[in-house]
Specification:
Structural class: little secondary structure
Protein name: PE-PGRS family protein
Low-confidence stretches: 385-390, 497-501, 678-746
Number of helices: 3
Helix content: under 10%
Shape: elongated
Radius of gyration: 49 Å
Mean pLDDT: 64
Strand content: under 5%
C-alpha cells in the first residue's frame, strides 16, 4: 500500500506453482510501489506471475512491474507484467526463464511510449517468450518492441515484440529483433517497423539454430528499409529480407539483403525495393543472400521504376554445389544486377536484364555470374531497347565457366538509333567451351568468342550487325582461342551493307589450342564496298591452320593460317569476282606449314569481268620443316591474262611447290619453289667397260656438261670446290697418278671425267685445285677419299709390323692378360704418337 512494493511470491513445492508476487501499493500523489517478483515454480510447476506495478498519482511516477518468476523443471516461466501508465510510464518487465522443457514467459507490454519487456529464454526443449509490445503514446514517440527471447535447445525463439505507432508528432518505435532459435529451432521473425511522421525500419530476423530457419526481416514502413533476414542455422534456410517501405511522396525504402543460408540450406531472397512516389527516388532491391554449403544463392530483387529508377541488385553467391542467384532486372535504363557466382559444382546466375527507358538510353545487361568449379557460367543479361533519342544498352558479357563448365553466352546488342555491340562470350573453364559472342545489331560489331578452357573449344565470334542504308556494316568478331586440346571457334561473319553502306570485314579465325585446329576466316561481304576475307587462324601444336575466307567482289581472299607443329597450313582464300570493272582480286597466299606439316595451297585468282583485269594466282605457302611447299595457283584467263603464281619454298628437307600454269595470252607459268637442302645425290659410277687402271679421257665433247663428283666429307685438309659450270674449252685436267707398288693402299679406281675448265686465272686456279685433290685423295668408285702423305703411309706400315710382333712377344713373356693387350691395341687404333704424346684420332 501507499507506494510501497508488494512482496515476493513464495516458491512452489515439488509439483506446485510458485506464488504470485504482490502488487505494488498505490500512492495518491507520489510514486507508486513496484510489484514484487513472482515466485519460482517448484519441480513440475509453473512459476508465479510477477506482481503488477501500481499506477502513480497525479504527479507520481508509476511503479515498475515485477519480473516473472523462473519456471521449475518442466514448468513455464512466469509472464512479466506490463508497465504502468501515468505521468512517468514504465517498461514492461522481462518474462521469466522457462524451466527444462518449459516456455519462457512473455515480456510485459510497455505503456505509453515505453519499450516492452524482453521475452524470457525458453528452457531446454521450450520456446522463448514473446517480446512485449512497445507502448503507444498519443503525442510523442512510440515505444520500441522488445527482442524476442532465445529459444531453448530444440525450441523456437520468440518473435520480437511489435513496435507501436507514434502520435501526431512522435517518432515510431523500431520493431524488435527476433530471438535466436535454439538448436533445432527457427529464429524469430523481426517485426515490421511502424508508420507515422517518422517511420521506422523493420526489425532484423533472428538467427536460426542448428537445423532451423533464420527469421524473416520485418517490413519497413513508409520509405524505410526492411529488416535483414536472419542467418539460417546449419541445415536451415536464411530468412527473407524485409521489403522496403512505400512512401507517398519521397524515396521508397530499400529492400534488405536476404539472410545467409546455413550449411546445406538455401539463403533467403533479398527483399524487394519499393516504388517511390511522384518525386521520390525508388528503393534499391536487396542483394540475394549467399547460399550455404549445398544451397543456392538468393535472387537479387529487381530495381524499381519511377522518376529515379534504381539498379537491380547482384544475385547471391551459391554455396558449394549450389547455383548463384540471378541478378535482378533493372527498369528504366539502369544496369541489371550481376549474376551471382556459382558455388563449387554449381552454375553461376544469369545477369539481370537492363532496364528499358522510353526516351533516354536503355540499360546495359549485366555480366553473367562466374560458374563454380564444374558448373556453367550464367548468360549475360540482355541489353534493352531505347526510345526515340536514346542509346541502347550493351549486351552483357557471358560469365566465365568454372572448372569443367562452359562459359556463358554473350547477349546480342540491341537495336535503335544508337545500336550497340554484342557482348563477349565468357571463357570456358578447364574442359569447357568458351561462350559464343553475341551478335551485333545495326552496324555494330559482334562480340568476340570466348576462349575455350583446357580441352575445350573456343566460342564462335558473333556476327556483325546489318545496317540498312547508311554507315559501315559491322565486322564479324574474331573467333575465340581454343583451349589446350580444343579447336578454336570460327570467326563471326561480316554482314552486307545497305544501299550506300560499306561492308563489314569477315572476322579472323581464332588460334587453335594445343592439338586443335585454327578457326576458319569468314568470307568477306558483298555490296558497294566489298571486303577481304578474314585470315585463317593459326593451328595449335599438331593442328591445322584455318582456311582464309574468300574475298567478295574484286577483293582478295584471306591468307591461310599457319599450321601448328606437325600440322598443315590453311588454304588461302580465293579472290573475289568483279563483274565489269576494276581489278579482280588476287588469291591469297597459302599458310605456312608447321614443323613437319605441309603448307596450305594458295587461293586461286579469279577471272575479271568484261573490262576488268584478272587476279593473280596466289603464291604457295612455305613448307614447314620436313614439309613440302604449297603449289602456286594457275593464272586466270580474260582480257588481261595473268601469270601463274610462284610455288612456295619447301621447308627443311621438303620439296618446293610447283609453279602455277600461265593461262592464255603468252603469259608465263609461275616459277617453281625453291627446294630446301636435302642429302646430296651420289654421282653415277663410270662405265664398266673402262679399265680400272686406265683413267678415261678427260676431254669432253664440245658443248657437253659433265657433272663433277661431290666433294669429300669429313676432312680438314679438303678444300671446297666451286660449282662446275659450262664454258669454253680449256686445258684438260691431268689424270690421277698411279699408286706406288709398295703402298698398302688399294689401287685407285678410274677417275671420272672432269668438266672443261674456264679460261684465264679462274681456269688456272681450278686446275691447281684439281691437281691437289687428285694428289691428296683417291677415287674409290663413288667418293673422293682422303689420302695420307707417302711418308705417313710408310711409317705406319713399319709400325704395324713391329707392333704385331711385339704384342705377341710381350704378351707371352710378361704374362699380360688378354684385356691388357686389347687395351693397348685400342690405344693404337684410336690414337697416334706425335711430338712425344698421344693424339686422339678423329
Amino acid at each position: 500500500m501507499g507506494g510501497v512494493g508488494g512482496g515476493q511470491g513464495g516458491q512452489g513445492g515439488v509439483g506446485g506453482h510458485g506464488g504470485a508476487g504482490g502488487a505494488g501499493g498505490n500512492n495518491t500523489g507520489t510514486s507508486s510501489g513496484t510489484g514484487g517478483a513472482g515466485g519460482q515454480g517448484g519441480t513440475g510447476g509453473a512459476a508465479g506471475a510477477g506482481g503488477a506495478g501500481a499506477d502513480g498519482g497525479a504527479a507520481g511516477a508509476n511503479g515498475t512491474a515485477g519480473d516473472g518468476g523462473d519456471g521449475g523443471a518442466g514448468g513455464k516461466g512466469g509472464a512479466g507484467q506490463s508497465g504502468a501508465s501515468g505521468t512517468s510510464p514504465t517498461d514492461g518487465s522481462p518474462g521469466g526463464q522457462g524451466g527444462a522443457g518449459g516456455q519462457g514467459g512473455a515480456g510485459g507490454a510497455g505503456i505509453a511510449g515505453v519499450g516492452g519487456g524482453q521475452g524470457g529464454q525458453g528452457g531446454a526443449g521450450g520456446q522463448g517468450g514473446v517480446g512485449g509490445a512497445g507502448g503507444t503514446n498519443t503525442g510523442t514517440s512510440g515505444g520500441d518492441g522488445a527482442n524476442g527471447g532465445q529459444g531453448g535447445v530444440g525450441g523456437a525463439a520468440g518473435a520480437g515484440g511489435s513496435a507501436t505507432d507514434g502520435g501526431a508528432i512522435g517518432a515510431n518505435g523500431a520493431g524488435g529483433k527476433g530471438g535466436a532459435g535454439g538448436a533445432g529451432g527457427n529464429g524469430g521473425g523481426g517485426q515490421a517497423g511502424t508508420s507515422g511522421a517518422s517511420p521506422t525500419a523493420g526489425g532484423q530476423g533472428g538467427t536460426g539454430g542448428t537445423g532451423g530457419r533464420g527469421g524473416d526481416g520485418g517490413a519497413g514502413i513508409g520509405g524505410v528499409g526492411g529488416g535483414q533476414g536472419g542467418q539460417g542455422g546449419a541445415g536451415g534456410q536464411g530468412g527473407v529480407g524485409g521489403t522496403g517501405g512505400t512512401d507517398t511522396g519521397t524515396s521508397g525504402g530499400d529492400g534488405a539483403d536476404g539472410g545467409k543460408g546455413g550449411t546445406g540450406g538455401l539463403s533467403g531472397s533479398g527483399g524487394s525495393g519499393t516504388d517511390g512516389g511522384l518525386n521520390g527516388a525508388d528503393g534499391i532491391g536487396g542483394k540475394g543472400g549467399t547460399g550455404g554449403a549445398g544451397g543456392n544463392g538468393g535472387t537479387g530483387q529487381a530495381g524499381t521504376s519511377g522518376s529515379v529508377p534504381t539498379v537491380g541488385e547482384t544475385g547471391g553467391r551459391g554455396g558449394a554445389g549450389g547455383q548463384g542467384g540471378d541478378g535482378g532486372a533493372a527498369p528504366g535504363n539502369i544496369f541489371g544486377g550481376q549474376g551471382g557466382q556459382g558455388g563449387v559444382g554449381g552454375q553461376g546466375g544469369a545477369g539481370g536484364a537492363g532496364g528499358t527507358n522510353t526516351g533516354a538510353s536503355g540499360g546495359s545487361g549485366a555480366d553473367g555470374g562466374q560458374g563454380g568449379a564444374g558448373g556453367a557460367a550464367g548468360a549475360g543479361g540482355v541489353g534493352s531497347g531505347n526510345g526515340a533519342h536514346g542509346a541502347i544498352g550493351t549486351g552483357g558479357r557471358g560469365g566465365t565457366g568454372g572448372a569443367g563448365g562452359n562459359g556463358g553466352t554473350g547477349q546480342a546488342g540491341t537495336s535503335g538509333s544508337v545500336p550497340t555491340a554484342g557482348g563477349q562470350g565468357g571463357g570456358g573453364g578447364a574442359g569447357g567451351q568458351g561462350g559464343a559472342g553475341g551478335a551485333g545489331i545495326g552496324g555494330v560489331g559482334g562480340g568476340q568468342g570466348g576462349q575455350g578452357g583446357l580441352g575445350g573449344n573456343g566460342g564462335t565470334g558473333g556476327a556483325g550487325g546489318t545496317n540498312t542504308g547508311t554507315g559501315i556494316d559491322a565486322a564479324g568478331a574474331n573467333g575465340g582461342k581454343g583451349g589446350t586440346g580444343g579447336a578454336a571457334g570460327a570467326a563471326g561473319s561480316g554482314t552486307d551493307g545497305g544501299a550506300a553502306g560499306a561492308i563489314g570485314a569477315g572476322g579472323k579465325g581464332g588460334a587453335g589450342g594445343t592439338g586443335g585446329n585454327g578457326g576458319s576466316g569468314q568470307a568477306g561481304s558483298s555490296g558497294t564496298t566489298p571486303t577481304a576475307g578474314g585470315q585463317g587462324g593459326r593451328g595449335g601444336a599438331g593442328g591445322q591452320g584455318g582456311d582464309g575466307g574468300a574475298g567478295i567482289g574484286g577483293v582478295g581472299g584471306g591468307q591461310g593460317g599457319q599450321g601448328g607443329i606437325g600440322g598443315q597450313g590453311g588454304t588461302g582464300g580465293a579472290g573475289g569476282n568483279n563483274t565489269g570493272t576494276g581489278l579482280n582480286a588476287a588469291g591469297a597466299d597459302g599458310g605456312k606449314g608447321g614443323t613437319g606439316g605441309v603448307a596450305g595451297a594458295a587461293g586461286s585468282g579469279t577471272d575479271g569481268g568484261a573490262a576488268g583485269a584478272v587476279g593473280t594466282g596466289g603464291k604457295g605457302g612455305t613448307g614447314g620443316a620436313g614439309g613440302a611447299g604449297g603449289a602456286g595457283q594457275a593464272g586466270t584467263s580474260s582480257p588481261s591474262p595473268t601469270a601463274g603464281g610462284q610455288g612456295g619454298a619447301g621447308g627443311r628437307g621438303g620439296q618446293g611447290g610447283d609453279g602455277g600454269a600461265g593461262i592464255i595470252g603468252g603469259i608465263g607459268g609461275g616459277q617453281g619453289g625453291t627446294g630446301a637442302p636435302v642429302a646430296k645425290a651420289a654421282p653415277v659410277a663410270p662405265a664398266a667397260t673402262t679399265p680400272a687402271a686406265v683413267p678415261p679421257t678427260e676431254q669432253p665433247v664440245a658443248g657437253a656438261v659433265v657433272a663433277e663428283p661431290p666433294e669429300p666429307e669429313g676432312s680438314a685438309e679438303t678444300a671446297a670446290a666451286p660449282a662446275a659450270s659450262a664454258g669454253k674449252a680449256g686445258p684438260a685436267a691431268p689424270a690421277a697418278p698411279a699408286a706406288p707398288a709398295a703402298s698398302a693402299e688399294p689401287a685407285v679406281a678410274a677417275v671420272p671425267a672432269a668438266p672443261r675448265a674456264p679460261a684465264g686465272s679462274a681456269g688456272r686456279r681450278l686446275q691447281r685445285h684439281r691437281q691437289r685433290r687428285q694428289r691428296r685423295h683417291r677415287w674409290d668408285g663413288r667418293h673422293w677419299r682422303h689420302r695420307r702423305p707417302r711418308w705417313v703411309r710408310k711409317r705406319h706400315q713399319e709400325q704395324r709390323g713391329r707392333r704385331r710382333q711385339g704384342r705377341r712377344r710381350r704378351c707371352r713373356r710378361r704374362r699380360r692378360s688378354r684385356r691388357q693387350c686389347s687395351d693397348r691395341r685400342r690405344r693404337y687404333r684410336r690414337h697416334w704418337w706425335h711430338r712425344r704424346q698421344w693424339w686422339h684420332r678423329r
